[in-house]
Specification:
With 251 residues, the protein is α/β, with parallel strands linked by helices. The protein has a single domain, classed as Alpha-Beta Barrel (TIM Barrel), CATH 3.20.20. It has helices at 13-18, 20-30, 44-54, 71-81, 99-118, 130-133, 141-147, 159-164, 169-176, 207-213, 230-244; strands at residues 6-7, 60-62, 85-88, 122-126, 135-136, 139-140, 154-158, 180-185, 218-221. The protein is globular and about 50 Å long.
Length: 251
């Protein structure tokens, strides 16, 4: 594994809410040099200071830009934190209800990407399961969406939710190609039940095939829910990926 592993801070949201500095310090102690913040637009100065103190960088971050009335403020906050790529974590079901709705969403995302570029940033989108469950003439809504995006827009494919959505995540990554610049890596049963998510290599997700299908993509560990100590689960994922991911490309 050559690309530094990252971790979505939503995984440790309770710890972040209690004490941001202590939370990121604990992740740094596991061995992370990169994290993926969420909620940074509400307190960018605090995030910037905490990450600097912990010796962490934030190549990517999540923010609800698509629905925002002031995307410039979010992008300005990202710059303050040191984020390079801002990812919108989801667009709700109505955005995928028809081909016209998908086209409108793509147009909105393309416009926001141009706004992000004016701040020196990249902009992208992160999927859940519903973008894969909805299809149009045999094509998933996510892929229809991707086909209408400007070249500079990136995708962060959540490989767990892709599988839960009924597609082969590795095959999806192959079809989407270099558009995918980040992937969320998480494990668990194929039947779903996010409360049963497990450290990488301990569930049923085809993680080796997923990693092989996206050598260009930064790997971001995430748990939506974890039944045990989530920091321990993250550490186990970090150790497994460090040992087993031999295809990640340098960034």
């Amino acid at each position: 594994m050559t690309t530094p592993l990252s971790v979505q801070l939503y995984s440790v949201r309770d710890a972040v809410a209690e004490n941001l500095q202590a939370a990121v310090d604990r992740l740094a102690a596991i061995g992370f040099t990169d994290v993926e913040p969420y909620g940074f637009a509400e307190r960018p100065t605090e995030f910037a200071a905490a990450l600097k103190s912990a010796g962490l960088a934030a190549p990517s971050g999540h923010a609800a830009v698509i629905a925002s009335d002031d995307p410039d403020a979010i992008f300005a906050a990202a710059v303050e934190v040191g984020i390079e790529t801002v990812i919108d974590p989801h667009a709700p079901d109505p955005s995928w209800a028809s081909t016209d709705a998908v086209a409108a969403l793509a147009e909105r995302v393309n416009s926001l990407s141009a706004t992000a570029a004016a701040h020196g940033l990249r902009f992208g989108y992160h999927n859940h399961n519903w973008e894969l469950e909805k299809t149009f003439d045999g094509q998933t809504a996510l892929e229809l969406f991707a086909s209408q995006l400007a070249p500079e827009v990136v995708l962060e494919v959540d490989t767990y939710w892709a599988e839960i959505g009924g597609v082969d995540a590795a095959a999806l990554l192959t079809r989407l190609g270099d558009r995918v610049q980040l992937i969320h890596v998480k494990d668990g049963p194929r039947t779903g039940g996010k409360e049963l998510q497990a450290p990488a290599g301990q569930g049923e997700m085809p993680i080796p095939a997923i990693l092989a299908a996206a050598p260009q993509a930064r790997r971001v560990i995430e748990f939506d829910v974890y039944a045990g100590d989530v920091f321990e689960g993250i550490a186990e994922s970090f150790a497994w990926l460090t040992e087993h991911d031999t295809v990640g490309a340098d960034k």
